[in-house]
Amino acid sequence: MFDLDLIKKVYSEFKGKVLAAKKILNRPMTYAEKILYTHLWNDPASFYTGGKDFVEFAPDRVAMQDATAQMALLQFMSAGIPRVAVPSTVHCDHLIQAEVGSVKDLLKAEDENKEVYDFLESVSNKYGIGFWRPGAGIIHQVVLENYAFPGGMMIGTDSHTPNAGGLGMIAIGVGGADAVDVMAGMPWELKFPKLIGVKLTGKLSGWTSPKDVILKVAGILTVKGGTGAIVEYFGEGADTISCTGKGTICNMGAEIGATTSLFPYDRKMYDYLAATEREEIGKLANDIAEYLRPDEGSEQYYDQVIEINLSELEPHINGPFTPDLAWPISVFKQAVKDKEYPEELKVALIGSCTNSSYEDMERSASVAKQALEMGLKVKSEFTITPGSEQIRATIERDGQLEIFEKVGGLVLANACGPCIGQWKRHDVKEGEKNSIITSYNRNFSKRNDGNPATNAFVASPEIVTALAFAGKLTFNPLTDTLTNSEGKEVKLAEPKGEELPKNGYLKGVNGYVAPAEDGSRITVEINPESKRLQRLFPFVHPNYAVDFSSMRLLLKAKGKCTTDHISMAGPWLRFRGHIDNISNNMFIGALNWFNDKTNYVKNLVTGVYDEVPNVARYYKANGIPWVVIGEENYGEGSSREHAAMEPRHLGGKAIIVKSFARIHETNLKKQGMLPLTFEDPADYDKVREDDMIDLDVKEIAPGSQVKMTLKHADGTTDEIMLNHTMNQQQIDWFKVGSALNLMAKKAVNS
Q: According to the model, what pLDDT value does residue 234 have?
């Protein structure tokens, strides 16, 4: 059992800290507020306003996945700190490509990524970080099984860190620089979140599953509706959902931009703690259970409340190209026809960090088993991704894996694979229009397979499994029949399954490596010729005289510009530890407003159109500063800070947009980039391709505006006012070149 002493300390102080906060608030508290106020860096002096006040927190732990951990740990090494100050872990899950099956895929990954895995294990060993080997499982599932606890707070370098909210923990996705702050023993700054309450009544039944709750919520709030807010589920319906089902809901809360999501402590969480050999933690939680739930009467203090009756909730299918396009299954068939989505279902994929629990596999296997008994076989490719070695070993013992294989399913490694672009398909060509459906969480263009023509839909694992037997999107298992091998019409019954394994979980192959007690004598070597790893050098501080005048426009991004558009995953993941090499993917997926093309912008010095990174490198080599213009919710999606580091590395000075996604805006600040927003979003239209741009930033201060002057090629000008959200500390980061520069400076001085 990990962190028992830490958890005992948190719980011993929890009640007293909540009561102290209540004296200040003088009202009932929501559950999220209780965790936030008990994890303040300093004792609360006053009430904090959501969406306004910057507040310093002291998280209990840090978790990093292997792709983001490379840059996070390279930054930590640069900070001059001898050992992490809080429990921290690295999980090798993102670099394993899915192709032919779990065994071969894992062996191939271990060979191809050996340099990176060795680096991560060596750094972990030196600095006191727990290391989870490739194959051990997906970070969020491993955290749920081993580290998450009710009432705790953690940060993780992945946007789906909120998975731990299923165990009543505030778990927030961040960039690597934020992780470095916490690992260095410094306070972690966050704008105090607003609160969105989701009141659940009734009880799920039939084909409806926990996945459908978040698919419904995504349809209501959209991809930006949760920005700057914690989504807290409450009501009698919340207590009827399994602990892992709660995790599913919280995990995909990242798709509505929420800071995090969480459920209050209940019996289901205790049962899961007991099943994962952490009953002692459950007993400790029981002792303070009333403080691990919202107070009676706190409902009125949410900034927004949504009500969902679980008894009336339909299964949903969301997509394509965005996770908030929500279709109740009763209307989806018609939507497929009306929207001309490809009806043939090429691949159906279940599992991942958000939907690979024992309950998920049980219910999906029950669908597959009855299909097998009825004489049905899958008509689409069907893949299964266990979330962890513990899940894989358990469902192998209990027979679910065998059922999946008998119907023609392919079991993939315990890793992210197809969910993040690490999927090598052989069934369609690049640019070939096709449909897939997954039980994953994110479905932006190119997200799964790199093919912009793939229409990716998201549903529960049960629905995905049923559609695999139909081979088409228009099948509704609630109402429609299938034709078996004997030509008979058969109908699938409602899925069933246990929440937890009756015979307990099997651990499987142990993938955990504990760090050395004393890592001071361990040396971390990086080959200067490596194409995968590169030591970091500090970003230079700004020169106000030259950096913000006569700037060029690198790109005016049109429409959705997510972190996937700014810094693609997939094959680019291998360069996450090499800032210069990965910068060759900068903005290659973003759409140029002036020509509706991707990776095709005008070099405003030569007049020649070229790939975005090439133009940026030309400007940098010639001392020409540049900016990028974007639209709403810029930086939506992943926590990957490469989307902020690459523009900084290639000479960018500012990103100017209509609005930002939370994590990305913070990442820009950390790296010394200016994140600015139009006071009037309509001013986006005034920016022309060949503009010279000036920014008046000499007197930038908290709450101030920045004047942008557009000098058009025809001799006219436009003056536009821009806003920022930087406080004084964040402005200090900007002035010295980055947050890491300031940290390193303080470390030297101390």
A: 98
Say which of 66, 93, 324, 691 is annotated catalytic. 93
Taking CA 717 as the corner, what is the angle to CA 713 and CA 722, rounded to the nearest 5 degrees? Answer: 120
Mark which of 464, 479, 494 sits at the end of a domain: 479
> How many structural domains are present in the chain?
2
640 given a catalytic annotation: yes
Residue 643 in any domain: the answer is yes
Give residue-wise pLDDT tens across range 132-184: 999 999 999 999 999 999 999 999 999 999 999 999 999 999 999 999 999 99
First-to-last C-alpha distance (Å) of the chain = 36
- Here the CATH number for the domain that contains residue 391 is 3.30.499.10
User: Residue 542, SS3?
Assistant: coil
Among 519, 433, 425, smallest CA distance to 122 is for 519
pLDDT at 748: 63
158 catalytic per annotation: yes
* 353 shares its domain with 430: yes
DSSP state of 157: S
- Domain of 584 in residue numbering reads as 544-749
Identify whether 398 is a catalytic site residue: no
3-state SS of 413-461? CCCCHHHHCCECCCCCCCCCCEEEEECCCCCCCCCCCCCCCEEEEECCH
**CA distances, 592 to each of 188, 189, 259, 332, 655 (Å):** 36, 34, 29, 32, 15
Q: Name the amino acid, one letter, at 398.
A: D
pLDDT value of position 749: 66
| Per-residue model confidence (pLDDT) at position 398 | 98
Q: How far apart are the C-alpha atoms of 154 and 163, rounded to whole Å?
A: 11
> Of 60, 158, 212, 360, which is the active-site residue?
158
How high is the pLDDT of residue 76? 93
Could you please report the per-residue DSSP string of 490-538? Answer: E-PPPP---SS-TT-----S--EEPPPS--TT------TT-SSB----P
How far apart, in whole angstroms, are the C-alpha atoms of residue 665 and residue 687?
A: 21
Q: Is 108 exposed, middle or buried (CB count within 10 Å of its CB: 0-12, 13-18, 19+)?
A: middle
638 annotated active-site: yes
Give yes or no: residues 412 and 550 share one domain.
no
Which of 39, 61, 94, 160 does the annotation list as catalytic? 94
Q: Is residue 320 domain-shared with residue 468, that is, in the same domain?
A: yes
- Name the active-site residue from 638, 642, 649, 664: 638
The stretches in the chain having pLDDT less than 70 are 747-750
349 and 455 inside one domain? yes
For residue 338, the Cα-to-chain-centroid distance in whole angstroms is 32
Are residue 472 and residue 548 in the same domain, yes or no?
no
Could you report the per-residue pLDDT of 300-357, keeping only the tens digit for each? 999 999 999 999 999 999 999 999 999 999 999 999 999 999 999 999 999 999 999 9
Q: Which residues make Cβ contacts (< 8 Å) with residue 597, sequence separation at least 6?
A: 591
List the catalytic residue out of 91, 160, 442, 532. 442
- The two beta strands, 194-201 and 61-65, are unpaired
**Inside any domain, residue 684:** yes
* DSSP collapsed to 3 states, 700-719: CCCCCEEEEEEECCCCCEEE
Q: For residue 535, tell me if it sits in a domain.
A: no
In this structure, the answer to whether residues 458 and 571 fall within a common structural domain is: no
- How many Cα atoms sit within 13 Å of 596 on the Cβ side? 0
Same structural domain, 633 and 743: yes
* The token pair that represents 60 in the structure block: 């209990």
| Tally: H helices and E strands in the chain | 24, 30
Q: How many residues does the chain have?
A: 750
Same domain, 700 and 575: yes
- CATH number at 724 reads 3.20.19.10
Q: Which of 433, 461, 479 is the last residue of a domain?
A: 479
Residue 408 in domain:
yes
